[in-house]
Amino acid sequence: MKKTTLALLLGFSCSAFAQEADDADRLEQQDNAALTALTDLAKRQDPYALSVLGFVYEFGVSVPKNIQQAIDYYQQACALSGDYGCYNAGYFYQYGIGVPQDNARASQLLEKINAADIDIKIASKLGHTVYEAKAKAETDAEMRAPILKYVSRYLNTADDQTRRIFSLLGLSKSDTLRLAKRWAQQGDPKVNFYAGHFYNFGYSSIKDKDVEAIRWFRRAAEGGEPESQNILALAYLKGRWGVDKAPQEAVVWFERAAQQGNNDAIINLAEMYYTGEEIRVDYDKALRLFTEADEKGASRAARYLSWIYYNG
Length: 312
What we know:
The protein has 312 residues and is mainly alpha-helical. Helix content is 68%, strand content 0%.
């Protein structure tokens, strides 16, 4: 019941599990009421609320960053429930981040994990891989996008056991989205792409998730990320996700992505020139682009090329 209350107090729709609520948004907007509600639940010993507060202080979400405070909240969550905070707290001790390295203390925390219904060996292997990479990401920002890609590869196709393992690692879908958004604030276009990607794949329970996704894709596209440029172009082409239909703007973004070798953008741009539905037909440009995509192994391009040559 308290978990449901947490989601409602923070102003988000709630699924069966509180961790699916995207409760960081209002905190990132400096919403003191959200932080107060979260803190009140933590005082009532709600383990999930304590775990979220750990994240709040670990990354400085609407409060000054405070690693020791983050560790304290994570440890409290772990002590109350092996479902939250144990891996998060153990991470700091295992890698000596913000505290002296203490493998014994890290092991104590990991032993408190609620291992019911999971393969603890798989959980330990995944946890080691992710947290070792996260430790490197503290000083090497280029590690962040690969971490998000690795985690999402599991979460996007996860069975119940895998979802539970990643939740125990502090990397449920909502946790991972929250992490991506914090890292994205540093401006990395690929990390911004993953923030948008996670909204698209339902990592948040907000109603207009695709509209929110395009906001992150636009930031990534403006930073030069080709997948996001292709997605933004499609939004302009179709007039969707809160973007007004603007075919010429679509061409601009398709061309930017195509120049970086993005096959989807190359084919999408070629289709526009071939069909002439939104811009003037240009078979020469279409042929050149389809040929380029075909040489990269795109099956869609081969189909169009066969039509072009068949019709002369």
